[in-house]
């Protein structure tokens, strides 16, 4: 992976210039016309959520079931890279998968999601906030959204390591289904939709979680929060992940390890020093059991009579949010999974992803819930009175021993998550920028730096426009709709090509070695 691509003639300029123009244009609109822009995005989001919510829900369930079918069928025995051994150990591989996901959003929502919908009538109708708030948090970050990543990781891994394709793009994965049409306008449209969706997802991530970073830093160092501090933090994060991504996959692995150790340190601090260890563990086990018992119901409930709107506001948003992140993360998982069977990619990916996200939501979410239930901090009441979510999170952390140190560790860990995730995103989106990129080669540093900077522009525009949480969610939901259609096509394309591969090699020993689990 040390070979670098330096020839600018190999770049796909269209896929670099058009997204740049779109991002700059959106920033100008959000900055100059914040109210009008917000109103338009909210209207479109309402139409998709109200009229097409069934599409997101059925897609999520179908993808999850498809991953299980693939893993335990003949497709699961296919080894990516034929007889090659895995590039990374199980720990290294699992670490990179978890830390390449959703950046600091994992920590942000772990600490706050249970409280943001704690007073929803829907939860009260089901049986109460204490049981269903953490249950829904695990469901929203559980098997279905991870299924979006893993089914595409299997398809992209097959495309790169078995088919040997040099065009590492969304459109190329559709070649078995669409043929040479992917080389024309249709392929360009698919890739442009993919890049825009990724930019929308990253902008939402930065815009949602950065205020918690700002509040945390200001709390520790006794500063007054401001838009200027928001922007400075974004720039600092961009510098960190740009420096890391310029070192290639070795730098990404190093940052991923550091991120994991910081995360585990924060988990230890909260789990064992909060005084709520037993409650956290027991509530976590109870929530997993409740989610498992009601999984099918949760995955198909669309609230047709709109008694609460909870599904449209939350579950559909999360499925859309994960879809826009499907552009880069599955590619990254596919690249680092060389030498592993498809069964291992799927089951191992579920193990690594769910272990990380469930640990985060169980520990940090139930820590806050424990303080709410025991009356130490009325987080739900504070949010109802208009306090910001970041400030509510900090109020919870102030109940910890050495609270300032815990908040500082939270901030550092979030920055590390940002750096790791955007390392992988920048690397993958840089691969998109080339007409051809052979396996084992990395994009040029200037290309990586270009995308690293572009990733930070739209979030700054959204922050300056002071977009609400609902409006930020709207951006993701709108961008996700065409991606959902493309995902369906990619899955059919994978089945077609993988079936052809198995048939062609049926008389040979087609990678029937046991999975490396």
UniProtKB/TrEMBL annotation:
InterPro entries with a match to the protein in the record: BCCT_transptr
Report the protein name in the record.
BCCT family transporter
What Pfam family does this protein match (any one)?
BCCT
The family note in this entry says: Belongs to the BCCT transporter (TC 2.A.15) family.
Specify whether Transmembrane is a keyword of the entry.
Answer: yes
Specify the taxonomic lineage.
Answer: Bacteria, Bacillati, Bacillota, Clostridia, Lachnospirales
The residues that cross the membrane are 12-33, 53-72, 93-110, 146-164, 185-207, 227-249, 261-281, 316-335, 347-369, 406-429, 449-466, 472-495
Location in the cell reads: Cell membrane
What membrane topology is given? Multi-pass membrane protein
Task: Provide this UniProt record's keywords sorted from A to Z.
Answer: Cell membrane, Membrane, Transmembrane, Transmembrane helix, Transport
């Amino acid at each position: 992976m040390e070979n670098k691509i330096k020839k600018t003639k190999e770049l796909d300029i269209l896929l670099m210039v058009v997204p740049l123009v779109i991002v700059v244009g959106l920033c100008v609109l959000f900055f100059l016309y914040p109210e009008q822009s917000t109103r338009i995005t909210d209207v479109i989001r309402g139409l998709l959520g109200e009229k097409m919510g069934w599409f997101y829900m059925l897609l999520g369930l179908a993808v999850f079931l498809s991953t299980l079918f693939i893993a335990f069928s003949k497709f699961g025995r296919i080894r990516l890279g034929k007889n090659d051994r895995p590039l990374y150990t199980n720990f290294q591989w699992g670490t990179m998968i978890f830390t390449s996901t959703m950046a600091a959003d994992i920590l942000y929502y772990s600490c706050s999601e249970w409280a943001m919908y704690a007073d929803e009538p829907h939860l009260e109708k089901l049986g109460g906030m204490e049981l269903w708030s953490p249950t829904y948090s695990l469901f929203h970050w559980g098997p279905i959204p991870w299924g979006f990543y893993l089914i595409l990781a299997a398809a992209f891994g097959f495309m790169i390591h078995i088919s040997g394709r040099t065009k590492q793009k969304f459109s190329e994965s559709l070649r078995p289904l669409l043929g040479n049409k992917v080389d024309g306008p249709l392929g360009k449209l698919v890739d442009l939709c993919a890049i825009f969706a990724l930019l929308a997802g990253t902008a939402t991530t930065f815009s949602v979680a950065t205020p918690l970073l700002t509040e945390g830093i200001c709390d520790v160092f006794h500063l007054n929060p401001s838009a200027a501090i928001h922007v400075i933090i974004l720039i600092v994060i961009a510098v960190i992940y740009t420096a890391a991504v310029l070192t290639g996959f070795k730098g990404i692995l190093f940052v991923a390890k550091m991120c994991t150790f910081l995360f585990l340190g924060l988990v230890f601090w909260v789990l064992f020093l909060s005084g709520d260890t037993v409650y956290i563990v027991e509530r976590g086990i109870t929530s997993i059991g409740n989610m498992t018992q009601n999984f099918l119901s949760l995955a198909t409930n669309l609230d047709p009579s709109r008694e609460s709107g909870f599904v449209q506001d939350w579950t559909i948003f999360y499925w859309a949010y994960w879809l826009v992140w499907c552009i880069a993360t599955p590619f990254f998982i596919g690249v680092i999974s060389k030498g592993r069977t498809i069964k291992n990619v799927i089951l191992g990916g579920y193990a690594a992803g769910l272990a990380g996200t469930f640990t985060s939501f169980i520990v940090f979410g139930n820590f806050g819930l424990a303080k709410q239930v025991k009356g130490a901090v009325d987080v739900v009441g504070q949010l109802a009175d208009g306090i910001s979510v970041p400030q509510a999170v900090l109020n919870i952390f102030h109940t910890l021993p050495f609270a300032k140190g815990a908040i500082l560790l939270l901030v550092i860990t979030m920055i590390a998550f940002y750096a790791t995730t955007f390392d992988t995103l920048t690397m993958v989106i840089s691969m998109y920028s080339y007409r051809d990129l052979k396996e084992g080669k990395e994009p040029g540093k200037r290309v990586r730096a270009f995308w690293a900077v572009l990733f930070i522009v739209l979030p700054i525009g959204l922050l300056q426009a002071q977009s609400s949480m609902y409006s930020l969610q709207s951006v993701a939901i709108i961008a996700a709709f065409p991606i959902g259609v493309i995902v369906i096509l990619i899955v059919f394309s994978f089945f077609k090509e993988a079936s052809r591969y198995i048939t062609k090699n049926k008389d040979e020993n087609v990678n029937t070695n046991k999975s490396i689990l």
